[in-house]
Amino acid sequence: MDELARNMVRLFDQSTKVFSALAERTTNGNGPYSMASEVGEAAKTLGEVARVWVSDPSKLAAAQGELFQSYADLWGRSFRRFLGEDVEPVVVPEPGDNRFKDPDWSNSQYFDFWKQAYLITSRWASDITKNTEGVDDRTRQKAVFYLEQMLAALSPSNYPFTNPEVVRATLETNAENLVRGMAHLAHDLEQSKNLLRITQTDLTAFEVGRDLAITPGKVIFQNDLIQLIQYSPTTEEVYERPLIMVPPWINKYYILDLVPEKSFVKFAVDQGFTVFMVSWVNPDGGLAQKTFEDYMNEGILAAVEAVNRQLGLHHVNMLGYCVGGTLLASALAYAAVKGDDRMASASFLTAQVDFSAAGDLLVFIDDTQLKSLEEMMAEQGYLDGSRMAAVFNMLRPRDLIWPYVVNNYLLGKKPFPFDLLFWNADSTRLPAANHAFYLREFYHENRLSKGEMELGGVKLDLSKINIPIYELFTREDHIAPALSVFQGSKLFGGPVRHVMAGSGHIAGVVNPPAKKKYQYWSGAPAETLEAWIGKATETPGSWWPDWAPGSQSNPAKKVPARDPAAGPLKPIEDAPGSFVKSKS
């Protein structure tokens, strides 16, 4: 009891500090994605759905009747269980729902009741929102998104008195777990900027250049926007045509070069590719006016020119990941009009060019939010990376937000070291002009797919891209949905090999063969994604071996391996370079 009393005093002291810090934050700006603006937008959107149901009392009464009947079934079965009878649950969690994996969620009648009541209510609310008639598709999509945020937050697993694991930990440690958890929350608040960034992994466990991004190579070129890395060969002979990788500038490039056993870069080098990597700068306010066109010219086209000079070759093979792939497609369309044939093939990894089916990210893109966002970026000249990280986490709150709230703040545990989550936390700033163009021209107006976008005075036409293309999309992608990527691939004019990987936007891409994890599907072209999936062949394991022989237009020709230090472009520094180490 003495220890419990001491811990309660410590908890009160820590709580006071935390609530004071939170109170200060509520007085800060109400820009897009702030708590105040999002709550207001959610209330407005869900209110429109509610008005539809209220306007039809009989339909509303029927829906409510179904909910109340489920509650009655739950209460009746709970009473029978209390009397010692074995009863089947009214509802069970979906497979893979890790919130309720603790045995006491089923063994204890108290926790089982809370679990089932939550599942009944959440599924009922989701169903009626998704089936609401009388609202446009965008309003319905926004309503479903905001409802999912609310339902994820309201899960009984997130609260100390309705989570069996937290209750046990509190009793076993005399509330020491809550004291540690409050200290973790205070630390996260102190380390965060305008938005709370929940620590998802042990940030002291990894270092770029020591544990991650350690594939040997040299930085052989740089300008305001990029450093270009040429990796050292590991084979005596290499393919004649080099491979230039274009990662997204929204994150650091080393998602493709994590620890060696997960490094796609190392895999490509070991297959005999001469690999070059674009490492984007982490921009500050001085680069505020760098445009999407600048990223094409000073990024992709400058990299191609540097590789041409370094190797004395005209043709190169390209690879673009996520928004890096969107930029690559734009550059290919630009080059096609200009008669520039240096980029001989392209691999796209979860990259969109048609944003009509871009998923929940469209919730954040309308004229009002874009205007507010542009005003906010104008103050500093960039969008802070923490805001984009918050948006991506909101796409999967059940997996990327609330498990860490429970682990860090309620159980008082430190997060587990995980290279992917370390990379996810290592965010980058986004220059105002480029980011505003990207959101407005691609997401909001979808001008590239319509043939209406212009770069450098050239109207871009994706159908003029006639080179071989390897198109990868992932089955559970929340950022670049499979349907969106597949639809966009139909706009290219050349041959396209479609491959769908298991899992999502990151894990589906970073899936090395040695892990023997997930699977991929491949098949002949089809008009729709559904038709393609219906005829595709499933192969266990990683898609990487499928990509290697089919990723360039002349895979057979080999030449002696190239030393990065032996070319006309003299090394500036060792890989991974200095750009990737810059912190936001």
Automatic annotation (TrEMBL):
GO terms for cellular component: cytoplasm. It holds the Pfam family PhaC_N. InterPro entries: AB_hydrolase_fold, PHA/PHB_synthase, PHA_synth_I, PhaC_N. The keyword NAD does not apply. It is found in: Cytoplasm. Residues 97-268 form the Poly-beta-hydroxybutyrate polymerase N-terminal domain. Keywords: Acyltransferase, Cytoplasm, Transferase. GO terms for biological process: poly-hydroxybutyrate biosynthetic process. Residues 541-584 are annotated as: Disordered. This is Poly(3-hydroxyalkanoate) synthetase. It comes from Methyloceanibacter marginalis.
